[in-house]
């Protein structure tokens, strides 16, 4: 019988903290990420949130198998550190998180890329459970991805395999991305680039979105439904970009299933049919159709994935 795990998902907007036992979240909470100001300042707040959850469940650290963090960026899961990260929690590569975990809780420590953790959660407990070959695409602040091939989570020699789907080039004449590349999926369609995309539209000042202090995809899909031409253009460009990314992932990793997740999937009723149609039209899969599914755990898959990883690490 496995012990509960402390699982932490380092989102760009919210940091989610859960006590997870196998496929059950016993308790969870979240705190503001304030990720632009780094991770070091947040560690005391994370520690407090963890202790509050332990107290709430009447658990001590002796009852816990370990602590796992799902983090954005390129993660060395062997040395248990963040190698490289893009803007969010920019100081993380300089922090010894394993030491922090030992000092704060005296627990074994595990860390993995957040998209890989989310795919693990879906693969072990969710929509990808019955497949040996699965790909996840996460649509949120950026565009994340991860792959399971032939029953193994893909990591690669330098820990970048499978996770850079958001940095596939889909417009070689496009703008420079945060990563330094040109015309990445993220520069064409992601939340961090959305306001810039909108303001570059020649008709932006005539759009209802011009009155918004910040633009998100909820607003884009809402105003597009109501006939706002700028919102329609952005929606259609984004759907095309995500479809191109999905097709590239399918061509790269040959999955049986593509799981879609992330905050933008609140508009899944528009997104999934569109991507499914484009994949059926344009993906080269002579063996048949890839299953396109919305995640079973859109907000918590990474917590489940880290629970699984921590328990695996302890065996």
TrEMBL record:
Species the sequence originates in: Chryseobacterium endalhagicum
The protein, known as: ROK family protein
Coiled coil segments of this chain: none
Domain of life from the UniProt record: Bacteria
Taxonomic lineage: Bacteria, Pseudomonadati, Bacteroidota, Flavobacteriia, Flavobacteriales
Pfam families hit by this protein: ROK
């Amino acid at each position: 019988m496995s012990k509960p795990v402390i699982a932490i998902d380092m989102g760009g907007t919210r940091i989610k903290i859960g006590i997870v036992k196998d496929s059950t979240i016993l308790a969870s909470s979240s705190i503001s990420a304030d990720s632009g100001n780094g991770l070091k300042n947040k560690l005391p707040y994370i520690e407090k949130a963890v202790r509050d959850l332990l107290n709430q469940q009447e658990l001590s650290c002796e009852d816990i198998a370990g602590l796992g963090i799902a983090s954005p960026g390129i993660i060395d899961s062997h040395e248990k550190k963040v190698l490289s990260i893009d803007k969010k929690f920019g100081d993380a590569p300089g922090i010894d998180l394993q030491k922090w975990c030992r000092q704060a809780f005296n627990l074994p420590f595990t860390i993995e890329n957040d998209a890989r953790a989310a795919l693990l959660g879906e693969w072990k407990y969710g929509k990808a459970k019955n497949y040996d070959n699965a790909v996840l695409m996460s649509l949120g602040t950026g565009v994340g991805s991860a792959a399971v091939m032939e029953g193994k989570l893909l990591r690669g020699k330098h820990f970048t395999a499978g996770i850079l789907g958001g940095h596939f080039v889909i417009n070689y004449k496009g703008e420079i991305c945060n990563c330094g590349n040109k015309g990445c999926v993220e520069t064409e369609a992601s939340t961090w680039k959305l306001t810039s995309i909108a303001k570059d539209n020649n008709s932006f000042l005539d759009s209802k979105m011009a009155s918004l202090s910040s633009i998100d995809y909820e607003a884009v899909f809402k105003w597009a439904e109501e006939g706002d031409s700028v919102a329609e253009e952005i929606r259609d460009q984004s759907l095309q970009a995500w479809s191109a990314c999905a097709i590239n992932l399918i061509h790269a990793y040959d999955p049986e299933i593509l799981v879609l997740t992330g905050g933008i999937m609140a508009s899944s009723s528009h997104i999934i049919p569109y991507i499914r149609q484009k994949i059926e039209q344009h993906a080269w899969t002579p063996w048949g159709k890839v299953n396109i599914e919305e995640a079973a755990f859109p907000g918590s898959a990474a917590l489940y994935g880290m629970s699984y990883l921590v328990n695996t690490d302890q065996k």
